[in-house]
Amino acid sequence: MGREPHSAGAASQSSASSELQRQEPRSAEARKKSGHGKTMKRPAAKKAARRPMGTVAEREARRRAVLAIVPRELREQFRDGCATCRGRAYCTVSCWAKRGFIA
Ligand SMILES: [Zn+2]
């Protein structure tokens, strides 16, 4: 006769998912292009001292000059570069210089 509806189930819903999304004010990551304009102004970071060679344009010009004196067949051989330049298309000036082509 005494049948108790022993229904113990939905009673423990702990909603603890509120502090999962904290907002960390990272400045290093959050300085994308648009949006915040509150980043420290940097004094025009110089383009790291790479090689004391010259501008990219100059090097490109020299490279062309070198390639101009390299026989086409040979040039085509190094279409995919070599081990030294690690696969630069048609190698670099220094590669050709090593081979004796100096413009
Ligand atoms: Zn090379």
Protein described:
With 103 residues, this protein is an all-alpha fold. It has a domain at 56-99. 26% of the residues lie in helices and 0% in strands. It has helices spanning 56-69, 72-77, 93-99. The longest helix is centred in the middle third of the chain and has 14 residues, at 56-69. The structure holds zinc ion.
Bound chemical compounds: zinc ion
Number of strands: 0
Strand content: under 5%
Shape: elongated
Work out the helix count: 3
Radius of gyration: 32 Å
Q: For the record, give the distance between the C-alpha atoms at the N and C termini, rounded to a whole number.
A: 108 Å
Specify the structural class. mainly alpha
Query: What is the mean predicted local confidence, pLDDT?
Result: 76
SSE pattern: HHH
Major β-sheet profile: none
Helix percent reads 25-40%
Low-confidence stretches: none
Can you give keywords for this protein?
single chain; 103 residues; binds zinc ion
Quick structural overview:
The protein is mostly helical and 103 residues long.
Layout of helices and strands:
Elements: H1 56-69, H2 72-77, H3 93-99
